[in-house]
Design goal:
single chain, alpha+beta, two-stranded antiparallel sheet, 15 strands, 24% strand
Length: 432
């Protein structure tokens, strides 16, 4: 049978598959966008990343559908007059909006102050739009506002188009009984209320909407697998009020020679070996949402005896390349030059040679913290429980990320991410 004859009978299999796949993704994507408003912290970030991935997928599928229309022209509409004109307007508007929605979302991501890299479904890198990285902040803000305006308002138009499209299909099926719906759903019985294909379509639409509205980050919760130590849930510190770190007298260094804390302290001071179950976590916020993360690998030299504090000392080395924050894509961004720059400054070092007692089993360690070549004073409040050869230390501190150049350039603004970051430390140790 000639191609033209086939076109008059119904849509090609490729067109049918693309139509229903795009429709299901659109319902899921709109529902997922509504879900983003209620999600918090790591869940919100993960939902946002999935929203970007589905949006780009839809953009590629719509482009493929348009190319296919030129290759295999669709069959003519069974309509005339105003109905035919309205059908063409709805179809044209659908194509325009299905292109404009992901493109405007792409603009939002590219012009955002928080330049988070996009990995489609956590695997395939997707670039920002060219030219945005070099834009001035004010120009970027204009593009961002424009993209957000278009993206938000086009979603409202989608609701209207959906209603018109479905109403037209049902009219052809139940009132006109002209077989129009059967061309996109082969085998459908014209005028039937109980056709299993229609029921399946309805169930799929409802399922896609519920899946999008109920989607959660799931496996993206904060977690980490340690090499030197194991990450576990941080236990509450006995001293809930952290001691703020000093943010003055910071010096930039290319290197800092390491010393053996146990050698400094002397042979009579107990030396401790860090055990699995130790954790180093941080807490901050992003646009008001809580962000919790940490480092899954750190090691140290600990020399500590409660009765020999003047000879006690601690050196902790943190592998900043093991930073985690609840989302793999955000973790990749944190390892970049604007944040921890793990390629050139992979190790952060905390060194304390002054430890004083503040209460029963409670102490303050005063020393320095070096990150990205910047060294500044810091104090850690902590408590210690010693039972035989085992000890558990729980501590807290507050540091100013800007002192250590964590979040440079546009990220130096504290509008969305505050300067102060809370640290929670749990060290399980065994006497050597």
């Amino acid at each position: 049978m000639p191609v033209e004859a086939k076109q008059r009978i119904g849509y090609s299999r490729v067109a049918i598959v693309l139509h229903w796949l795009i429709a299901a993704l659109l319902v899921f994507e709109v529902a997922l966008g509504l879900n983003m408003e209620d999600a918090k912290g790591a869940d919100k970030f993960a939902v946002f990343q999935l929203h970007k991935s589905v949006g780009i997928t839809m953009l590629l599928l719509v482009l493929l559908r348009i190319v296919w229309r030129f290759y295999r022209r669709p069959p003519p509409l069974n309509a005339s007059g105003w109905e035919r004109a309205l059908a063409h307007i709805v179809h044209g508007a659908f194509y325009l909006i299905l292109l404009a929605l992901p493109v405007s979302g792409w603009i939002i991501v590219s012009a955002s102050k928080i330049a988070v890299p996009t990995l489609l479904y956590g695997t395939i890198p997707w670039p920002h739009l060219p030219g945005f990285a070099a834009m001035a902040a004010t120009t970027k803000a204009t593009w961002y506002a424009g993209g957000a305006f278009v993206h938000t308002n086009l979603v409202n138009v989608i609701y209207l188009l959906f209603a018109l499209h479905i109403a037209g299909a049902l009219k052809h099926h139940f009132i006109d009984r002209d077989g129009e719906l059967a061309r996109m759903v082969p085998g459908t019985r014209t005028g039937s209320w109980t056709d299993p294909r229609l029921l399946l379509i309805g169930m799929t639409v409802v399922a896609a909407a519920l899946l999008g509205l109920g989607w959660q980050a799931g496996g993206s919760k904060v977690s980490g697998t340690a090499t030197t130590v194991s990450s576990t849930t941080v236990m509450p510190t006995q001293n809930p009020t952290p001691t703020p770190s000093a943010t003055v007298s910071a010096t930039t260094e290319a290197t800092e020679p390491a010393t053996d804390a146990s050698a400094t302290a002397g042979q009579d001071v107990s030396s401790w070996l860090i055990q699995p179950g130790s954790t180093l976590r941080f807490r901050t916020t992003w646009s008001g949402d809580a962000i919790a993360g940490g480092f899954s690998k750190f090691s140290g030299d600990i020399a500590f005896s409660p009765d020999q504090l003047d000879r006690s000392a601690v050196t902790i080395t943190i592998d900043t390349g093991t930073v985690f924050s609840g989302d793999s894509q955000r973790d990749d961004a944190l390892k970049g030059d604007d944040w921890f720059a793990t390629g050139a400054n992979r190790s952060a070092v905390f060194r304390a040679t002054r430890i004083r007692k503040t209460g029963t089993d409670r102490y303050v360690a005063t020393g320095t913290l070096r990150i990205k070549g910047v060294t500044a004073p810091v104090s850690v409040s902590f408590s210690v429980r010693i039972s035989g050869d085992d000890a558990t230390m729980q501590g807290s501190a507050t540091i100013n990320r800007l002192t250590y150049k964590i979040g440079e350039g546009e990220y130096a603004s504290t509008t969305e991410i505050p300067a102060l970051v809370n640290l929670d430390i749990v060290v399980k140790a065994r006497r050597k």
